[in-house]
Protein backbone atom coordinates (compact mmCIF):
# COMPACT_ATOMS: atom_id res chain seq x y z
CA UNK A 1 0.00 0.00 0.00
CA UNK A 2 1.29 3.45 -0.88
CA UNK A 3 1.66 5.86 2.02
CA UNK A 4 2.32 9.30 0.54
CA UNK A 5 1.85 11.49 -2.50
CA UNK A 6 5.54 11.11 -3.29
CA UNK A 7 5.39 7.31 -3.50
CA UNK A 8 5.69 5.44 -6.79
CA UNK A 9 4.61 2.09 -8.15
CA UNK A 10 7.09 -0.06 -10.02
CA UNK A 11 5.74 -1.11 -13.39
CA UNK A 12 6.51 -4.53 -14.86
CA UNK A 13 9.31 -3.07 -16.98
CA UNK A 14 10.98 -1.72 -13.82
CA UNK A 15 9.97 1.90 -14.42
CA UNK A 16 8.77 3.97 -11.47
CA UNK A 17 5.43 5.78 -11.88
CA UNK A 18 3.89 8.27 -9.42
CA UNK A 19 0.76 7.14 -7.59
CA UNK A 20 -1.21 10.21 -8.66
CA UNK A 21 -1.23 12.02 -12.00
CA UNK A 22 -2.49 15.40 -13.21
CA UNK A 23 -4.73 15.34 -16.29
CA UNK A 24 -4.84 18.09 -18.91
CA UNK A 25 -8.04 17.36 -20.84
CA UNK A 26 -9.89 20.53 -21.98
CA UNK A 27 -6.97 22.79 -21.24
CA UNK A 28 -4.65 24.66 -23.60
CA UNK A 29 -5.63 28.32 -23.36
CA UNK A 30 -3.37 31.09 -22.12
CA UNK A 31 -4.82 30.90 -18.58
CA UNK A 32 -4.06 27.18 -18.46
CA UNK A 33 -0.35 27.89 -18.53
CA UNK A 34 -0.72 29.40 -15.08
CA UNK A 35 -2.86 26.47 -13.94
CA UNK A 36 -0.17 23.99 -14.98
CA UNK A 37 2.56 26.08 -13.42
CA UNK A 38 0.46 26.09 -10.27
CA UNK A 39 0.17 22.31 -10.37
CA UNK A 40 3.93 22.01 -10.71
CA UNK A 41 4.41 24.40 -7.79
CA UNK A 42 1.94 22.36 -5.72
CA UNK A 43 4.14 19.31 -6.26
CA UNK A 44 2.66 17.41 -9.21
CA UNK A 45 5.25 15.77 -11.44
CA UNK A 46 3.17 13.23 -13.38
CA UNK A 47 1.25 14.91 -16.21
CA UNK A 48 -1.05 13.15 -18.66
CA UNK A 49 -1.85 14.71 -22.04
CA UNK A 50 -2.76 13.62 -25.59
CA UNK A 51 -2.50 14.95 -29.11
CA UNK A 52 -6.30 15.38 -29.23
CA UNK A 53 -6.28 17.51 -26.05
CA UNK A 54 -4.16 20.18 -27.76
CA UNK A 55 -2.39 20.76 -24.44
CA UNK A 56 1.05 19.41 -25.28
CA UNK A 57 2.43 22.84 -26.17
CA UNK A 58 1.23 24.56 -23.00
CA UNK A 59 2.39 21.65 -20.83
CA UNK A 60 5.82 21.71 -22.41
CA UNK A 61 6.01 25.46 -21.85
CA UNK A 62 4.97 25.14 -18.19
CA UNK A 63 7.63 22.51 -17.56
CA UNK A 64 10.29 24.55 -19.33
CA UNK A 65 9.42 27.69 -17.38
CA UNK A 66 9.43 25.80 -14.06
CA UNK A 67 13.21 25.45 -14.21
CA UNK A 68 12.88 21.90 -12.86
CA UNK A 69 14.93 19.30 -14.79
CA UNK A 70 12.97 17.24 -17.32
CA UNK A 71 14.03 13.98 -15.65
CA UNK A 72 12.09 14.91 -12.49
CA UNK A 73 8.83 14.77 -14.44
CA UNK A 74 6.82 11.81 -15.65
CA UNK A 75 5.12 12.70 -18.94
CA UNK A 76 2.53 10.63 -20.79
CA UNK A 77 0.78 11.40 -24.06
CA UNK A 78 -1.43 9.48 -26.46
CA UNK A 79 -1.85 8.80 -30.17
CA UNK A 80 -5.36 9.63 -31.33
CA UNK A 81 -7.69 7.43 -33.38
CA UNK A 82 -6.45 8.71 -36.75
CA UNK A 83 -2.81 8.45 -35.65
CA UNK A 84 -3.02 4.65 -35.41
CA UNK A 85 -0.96 2.69 -37.93
CA UNK A 86 2.72 1.86 -38.33
CA UNK A 87 3.89 5.02 -40.11
CA UNK A 88 1.15 7.21 -38.66
CA UNK A 89 2.08 6.65 -35.03
CA UNK A 90 5.79 7.22 -35.67
CA UNK A 91 5.02 10.61 -37.17
CA UNK A 92 2.52 11.32 -34.38
CA UNK A 93 5.12 10.77 -31.68
CA UNK A 94 7.55 13.11 -33.41
CA UNK A 95 4.85 15.80 -33.49
CA UNK A 96 4.06 15.27 -29.81
CA UNK A 97 7.71 15.52 -28.82
CA UNK A 98 8.08 18.70 -30.85
CA UNK A 99 5.05 20.28 -29.19
CA UNK A 100 6.24 19.23 -25.74
CA UNK A 101 9.78 20.47 -26.48
CA UNK A 102 11.15 17.13 -25.27
CA UNK A 103 13.34 14.42 -26.73
CA UNK A 104 11.65 11.48 -24.97
CA UNK A 105 8.40 10.45 -23.29
CA UNK A 106 7.89 8.38 -20.17
CA UNK A 107 4.70 6.78 -21.50
CA UNK A 108 3.12 6.66 -24.95
CA UNK A 109 -0.40 5.28 -25.25
CA UNK A 110 -2.88 4.28 -27.94
CA UNK A 111 -5.84 6.49 -27.06
CA UNK A 112 -8.69 4.28 -28.39
CA UNK A 113 -8.72 0.75 -29.81
CA UNK A 114 -11.10 1.56 -32.68
CA UNK A 115 -11.90 4.49 -34.93
CA UNK A 116 -15.54 3.46 -35.22
CA UNK A 117 -17.84 0.61 -34.34
CA UNK A 118 -17.76 -0.41 -38.01
CA UNK A 119 -13.96 -0.61 -38.32
CA UNK A 120 -13.42 -4.23 -39.34
CA UNK A 121 -9.61 -4.21 -39.38
CA UNK A 122 -9.06 -2.54 -36.01
CA UNK A 123 -7.11 -5.50 -34.65
CA UNK A 124 -4.57 -5.41 -37.48
CA UNK A 125 -4.25 -1.63 -37.18
CA UNK A 126 -3.67 -1.78 -33.43
CA UNK A 127 -1.06 -4.53 -33.85
CA UNK A 128 0.81 -2.47 -36.46
CA UNK A 129 0.56 0.60 -34.24
CA UNK A 130 1.97 -1.33 -31.30
CA UNK A 131 4.81 -2.73 -33.41
CA UNK A 132 5.86 0.80 -34.36
CA UNK A 133 5.58 1.94 -30.75
CA UNK A 134 7.81 -0.91 -29.64
CA UNK A 135 10.43 0.26 -32.14
CA UNK A 136 10.13 3.82 -30.80
CA UNK A 137 10.63 2.45 -27.30
CA UNK A 138 13.71 0.46 -28.30
CA UNK A 139 15.06 3.58 -30.03
CA UNK A 140 14.88 5.49 -26.73
CA UNK A 141 12.07 7.88 -27.66
CA UNK A 142 9.80 6.51 -24.96
CA UNK A 143 10.45 4.58 -21.75
CA UNK A 144 7.19 2.63 -21.58
CA UNK A 145 4.05 1.88 -23.58
CA UNK A 146 0.41 1.76 -22.63
CA UNK A 147 -3.22 1.84 -23.63
CA UNK A 148 -6.30 3.93 -23.02
CA UNK A 149 -9.93 2.78 -23.20
CA UNK A 150 -8.89 -0.80 -23.95
CA UNK A 151 -11.30 -3.34 -22.48
CA UNK A 152 -10.25 -6.99 -21.95
CA UNK A 153 -11.13 -8.03 -25.53
CA UNK A 154 -8.98 -5.18 -26.89
CA UNK A 155 -6.16 -5.76 -24.41
CA UNK A 156 -5.92 -9.42 -25.46
CA UNK A 157 -5.18 -8.39 -29.06
CA UNK A 158 -2.11 -6.45 -27.95
CA UNK A 159 -0.99 -9.01 -25.37
CA UNK A 160 -1.03 -11.80 -27.95
CA UNK A 161 1.47 -10.11 -30.28
CA UNK A 162 3.41 -7.73 -28.01
CA UNK A 163 7.14 -8.08 -27.53
CA UNK A 164 6.90 -5.25 -24.99
CA UNK A 165 3.86 -5.57 -22.73
CA UNK A 166 1.50 -2.66 -22.05
CA UNK A 167 2.45 -1.12 -18.74
CA UNK A 168 -0.79 0.81 -18.09
CA UNK A 169 -4.38 1.00 -19.26
CA UNK A 170 -6.55 4.06 -18.69
CA UNK A 171 -10.31 3.67 -18.22
CA UNK A 172 -13.09 5.81 -16.85
CA UNK A 173 -13.21 4.54 -13.26
CA UNK A 174 -14.90 6.02 -10.20
CA UNK A 175 -17.48 4.99 -7.59
CA UNK A 176 -20.67 4.40 -9.51
CA UNK A 177 -18.74 3.21 -12.57
CA UNK A 178 -15.91 1.14 -11.15
CA UNK A 179 -15.58 -1.32 -14.07
CA UNK A 180 -14.66 -4.14 -11.71
CA UNK A 181 -14.34 -6.82 -14.42
CA UNK A 182 -12.08 -4.74 -16.68
CA UNK A 183 -9.91 -3.62 -13.76
CA UNK A 184 -9.51 -7.15 -12.39
CA UNK A 185 -8.62 -8.50 -15.83
CA UNK A 186 -6.00 -5.83 -16.50
CA UNK A 187 -4.45 -6.31 -13.07
CA UNK A 188 -4.33 -10.08 -13.63
CA UNK A 189 -2.18 -9.40 -16.71
CA UNK A 190 0.24 -7.21 -14.77
CA UNK A 191 -1.11 -3.98 -16.24
CA UNK A 192 -1.30 -0.98 -13.90
CA UNK A 193 -4.80 0.44 -14.20
CA UNK A 194 -5.40 4.18 -14.27
CA UNK A 195 -8.60 6.18 -13.79
CA UNK A 196 -9.62 9.09 -15.95
CA UNK A 197 -12.59 11.11 -14.68
CA UNK A 198 -11.91 9.71 -11.18
CA UNK A 199 -14.58 11.97 -9.68
CA UNK A 200 -17.23 11.16 -12.27
CA UNK A 201 -17.29 14.75 -13.60
CA UNK A 202 -18.50 15.86 -10.19
CA UNK A 203 -21.77 13.91 -10.38
CA UNK A 204 -20.40 11.13 -8.21
CA UNK A 205 -19.25 13.42 -5.42
CA UNK A 206 -22.71 14.99 -5.18
CA UNK A 207 -24.36 11.59 -4.86
CA UNK A 208 -26.38 11.08 -1.66
CA UNK A 209 -24.50 7.91 -0.79
CA UNK A 210 -21.23 9.83 -0.52
CA UNK A 211 -22.46 12.01 2.34
CA UNK A 212 -22.21 9.22 4.92
CA UNK A 213 -18.56 8.64 3.99
CA UNK A 214 -17.61 12.32 4.16
CA UNK A 215 -19.12 12.53 7.64
CA UNK A 216 -17.52 9.28 8.83
CA UNK A 217 -13.99 10.06 7.60
CA UNK A 218 -13.98 13.85 7.84
CA UNK A 219 -12.86 14.06 4.23
CA UNK A 220 -14.40 15.57 1.12
CA UNK A 221 -16.30 13.40 -1.37
CA UNK A 222 -13.48 13.98 -3.86
CA UNK A 223 -10.96 12.64 -1.39
CA UNK A 224 -13.15 9.60 -0.70
CA UNK A 225 -13.30 8.86 -4.45
CA UNK A 226 -9.54 9.17 -4.85
CA UNK A 227 -8.81 7.08 -1.76
CA UNK A 228 -11.16 4.39 -3.08
CA UNK A 229 -9.10 4.14 -6.27
CA UNK A 230 -5.74 4.26 -4.52
CA UNK A 231 -6.71 1.38 -2.23
CA UNK A 232 -7.55 -0.62 -5.35
CA UNK A 233 -4.04 0.06 -6.68
CA UNK A 234 -5.43 2.30 -9.43
CA UNK A 235 -3.70 5.56 -10.40
CA UNK A 236 -6.15 8.49 -10.45
CA UNK A 237 -5.59 11.19 -13.08
CA UNK A 238 -6.97 14.27 -11.36
CA UNK A 239 -7.62 17.71 -12.76
CA UNK A 240 -8.33 21.06 -11.14
CA UNK A 241 -7.80 24.73 -11.89
CA UNK A 242 -7.87 25.60 -8.19
CA UNK A 243 -4.68 25.45 -6.14
CA UNK A 244 -6.78 24.62 -3.09
CA UNK A 245 -8.35 21.63 -4.84
CA UNK A 246 -4.99 20.56 -6.27
CA UNK A 247 -3.61 20.35 -2.76
CA UNK A 248 -6.75 18.70 -1.41
CA UNK A 249 -6.44 15.98 -4.05
CA UNK A 250 -2.94 15.26 -2.75
CA UNK A 251 -4.16 14.85 0.84
CA UNK A 252 -5.55 11.33 0.53
CA UNK A 253 -2.79 9.35 2.22
CA UNK A 254 -3.59 10.07 5.86
CA UNK A 255 -6.70 7.88 6.14
CA UNK A 256 -7.92 4.47 5.01
CA UNK A 257 -11.35 3.27 3.96
CA UNK A 258 -12.53 0.15 5.79
CA UNK A 259 -13.00 -3.12 3.92
CA UNK A 260 -16.75 -2.79 4.34
CA UNK A 261 -16.82 0.72 2.93
CA UNK A 262 -14.67 -0.32 -0.02
CA UNK A 263 -17.22 -3.05 -0.72
CA UNK A 264 -20.11 -0.59 -0.51
CA UNK A 265 -18.41 1.84 -2.89
CA UNK A 266 -17.52 -0.98 -5.29
CA UNK A 267 -21.21 -1.95 -5.43
CA UNK A 268 -22.51 1.61 -5.63
CA UNK A 269 -25.31 1.91 -8.22
CA UNK A 270 -24.21 3.39 -11.54
CA UNK A 271 -24.37 7.15 -11.15
CA UNK A 272 -22.74 8.64 -14.21
CA UNK A 273 -20.46 7.80 -17.10
CA UNK A 274 -19.36 9.88 -20.03
CA UNK A 275 -21.14 7.74 -22.60
CA UNK A 276 -17.96 7.09 -24.60
CA UNK A 277 -17.33 3.37 -24.86
CA UNK A 278 -15.21 1.41 -27.39
CA UNK A 279 -18.01 -1.09 -27.97
CA UNK A 280 -20.88 1.39 -27.82
CA UNK A 281 -19.99 4.99 -28.70
CA UNK A 282 -16.58 6.24 -29.84
CA UNK A 283 -15.44 9.89 -30.05
CA UNK A 284 -15.01 10.95 -33.67
CA UNK A 285 -13.20 14.28 -33.45
CA UNK A 286 -10.07 14.23 -35.60
CA UNK A 287 -6.78 15.43 -34.20
CA UNK A 288 -5.22 18.60 -35.55
CA UNK A 289 -1.83 17.66 -36.95
CA UNK A 290 -0.87 21.33 -37.30
CA UNK A 291 -1.01 22.07 -33.57
Tell me the series of helices and strands, N- to C-terminal.
Answer: EEEHEHEHEHEHEHEHHEHH
Whole-number mean pLDDT: 94
Ends apart, CA distance between termini? 40 Å
Helix content: 25-40%
**How would you sum up the major sheet?**
8 strands, parallel, barrel
Which spans of ≥5 residues are poorly predicted at pLDDT below 50?
A: none
Radius of gyration over all CA atoms, rounded:
18 Å
Q: Assembly type of the shown chains?
A: single chain
What would you give as the CATH superfamily of the domain at 14-166? NADP-dependent oxidoreductase domain
Write down the CATH topology of the domain at 14-166.
Answer: TIM Barrel
Strand content: 15-25%
Biggest sheet: strand arrangement: 3-4-5-6-7-8-9-10
Structural description of this entry:
α1 packs across α2 and α4 crosses α5. The longest helix has 17 residues, at 122-138. The strands form 2 sheets. Strands 3-4-5-6-7-8-9-10 form an 8-stranded parallel β-barrel, surrounded by 4 helices. A two-stranded antiparallel ribbon has the order 1-2. It has helices at residues 30-42, 56-66, 86-100, 122-138, 152-161, 180-188, 208-217, 221-231, 243-250, 259-266, and strands spanning 8-10, 16-18, 21-23, 46-48, 74-79, 105-110, 142-148, 168-172, 192-196, 235-238. It has a domain at 14-166: NADP-dependent oxidoreductase domain (TIM Barrel, Alpha-Beta Barrel). The protein is globular. The model has no long low-confidence stretch (mean pLDDT 94). It has 291 residues and is α/β, with parallel strands linked by helices. It contains 10 helices and 10 strands.
Amino acid sequence: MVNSFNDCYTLENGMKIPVLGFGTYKMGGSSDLEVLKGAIKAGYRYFDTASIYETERVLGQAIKESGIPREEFFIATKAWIDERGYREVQAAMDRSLQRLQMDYLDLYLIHWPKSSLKETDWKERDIETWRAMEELCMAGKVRGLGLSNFLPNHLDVIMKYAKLKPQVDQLEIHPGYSQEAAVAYGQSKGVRMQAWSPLGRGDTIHNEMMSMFTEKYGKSASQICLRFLIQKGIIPLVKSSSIEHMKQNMEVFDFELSTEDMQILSCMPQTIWRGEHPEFKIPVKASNFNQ
